[in-house]
Design brief:
Methane Monooxygenase Hydroxylase, Chain G, domain 1, binds protoporphyrin IX containing FE, 17 helices, disordered C terminus, mainly alpha
């Protein structure tokens, strides 16, 4: 019970932070925001650059900003940087002091020196103040689908962390798994919202181009694509901190800088430790513990968490493949940088990967689910039960 209170207060803290940052307008950008979609539609790069120069805070203002104001400032500069880059111009070449000022904001916020998915979604105000590249219904829904999903995902991550401290024979284990399943349902709902309301061809040929990486200080920083959700932190706790798949490890490290500092902390804390799956395997197979109905119940409850993950990943992969089929003619290959990340962003996902990475992640998720099924089946044999576990 005490652990649930901890989790509830963590969730409230996140929500409070979202509300505070979304409410702020430290650069007085509210008046400009409504014009950005038209400037983009007209490919008016000169006006975009002019507006960005006007919006850039002075050094004294920058020094004054607190954590919340600094994040709101990154959000508002970011929407302009993504717009300028979409029309083929590297922002640092046209905005004086951009690199130094963004670096300063990054230090204040412990975030990258550009906007991330958090800035674009949960730190983005609703209604007339919503910061958008195109102002289209598709973009509204894309933002809303991530808003639907991201806080519940964070709650589910804190709950998985609690499971790491909950013994398998405790009745709390099943209760916490049920809560994980409940929160994760919102992640699936977010995906369904996007699938129903975002035109995949429009996403592939227009929207994602605003998420292109920009250069700052000699390196690339990725744009605010949904791939920056802390899904890999969920994986980390559930099955992947003890998984040695090199491609997935590179993927996780690529996105680690873009998630919330709290999520980064959890990810790092669980590096090189047993995942929840690993703990089940050790107890059931290696230690060969005696049959205990409450342990069995816990494992079946954990299996439901894997099921939810699969229920997100399978349809999401289909959506991605369908969307990128619209650009297949432009595809030029994707295996030349950091093993699988590609510099050819226009041919790949907004995070720079091709949808191929999703096949690997889905494959791993299925393999790990099968491993849990094998543990459960092994345990059932031990109990001398004759029924077959339906998930196996
Ligand atoms: C128009 C709909 C969407 C398309 C076409 C799409 C496409 C993609 C692609 C191609 C990737 C590979 C990485 C990359 O971007 O380079 C990816 C990854 C990812 N996307 Fe999406 N996506 C869409 C919507 C969403 C939504 C609504 C969510 C969350 C609610 C989401 C969450 C993720 C996550 C978490 C990953 C990382 C891989 C994983 O953990 O399975 N995506 N997406």
């Amino acid at each position: 019970m005490a652990s649930s209170i901890v989790h509830a207060s963590k969730g409230q803290k996140e929500r409070k932070e979202n509300e505070v940052i979304a409410s702020l307008d430290p650069l007085n950008a509210d008046g400009l925001i409504g014009q950005i979609p038209d400037l983009n539609k007209n490919k008016d790069v000169n006006s975009l650059v002019f507006s960005t120069k006007n919006l850039m805070p002075s050094w004294p203002d920058l020094q004054e900003f607190d954590y919340y104001q600094a994040n709101a400032a990154i959000r508002d500069i970011g929407i302009l940087l993504g717009s300028i880059k979409r029309h083929g111009v590297e922002p640092y070449t046209v905005i004086p002091d951009l690199e130094a000022k963004m670096k300063h904001l990054a230090t204040k916020t412990s975030m990258p020196p550009r906007d991330t998915l958090l800035h674009y979604t949960v730190w983005n105000p609703a209604g007339d103040r919503k910061r958008m590249y195109t102002g289209t219904a598709d973009e509204h829904y894309l933002i809303d689908s991530v808003v639907t999903a991201i806080d519940p995902l964070v709650c589910a991550i804190y709950l998985l962390k609690e499971l790491h401290y909950t013994p398998l024979h405790s009745g709390d284990f099943e209760r916490i798994c049920d809560q994980v399943v409940g929160h994760f349902q919102k992640v699936i709902d977010g995906m369904v919202l996007a699938r129903r309301n975002v035109s995949l061809s429009y996403f592939a040929t227009e929207l994602r181009l605003y998420f292109d990486p920009i250069m700052l200080d000699g390196r690339e920083y990725l744009g605010p694509g949904a791939v920056e959700m802390p899904m890999f932190v969920f994986d980390q706790l559930l099955w992947s901190c003890d998984c040695d798949d090199v491609e997935y490890q590179i993927f996780k490290k690529t996105y680690l800088p873009y998630v919330h500092p709290e999520m980064r902390k959890i990810y790092i804390q669980y590096q090189n430790r047993d995942s929840l799956l690993g703990k089940c395997y050790k107890n059931i197979v290696k230690k060969n513990i005696d049959f205990d109905p409450s342990v069995y119940t816990s494992m079946r409850a954990l299996r439901m968490c894997f099921q939810q993950l699969k229920s997100f990943r399978m349809p999401h992969k289909k959506v991605a493949e369908e969307a990128y089929a619209h650009t297949s003619g432009e595809h030029h290959g994707c295996d030349h940088v950091k093993n699988s990340i590609s510099q050819d962003y226009r041919a790949n996902g907004s995070g720079g990967y091709s949808p191929d990475i999703l096949s690997n992640i889905v494959k791993l998720t299925n393999q790990k689910t099968a491993k849990l099924d094998a543990c459960i089946a092994f345990y059932e044999l031990k109990a001398g039960r004759s029924f077959v576990y339906p998930g196996s």
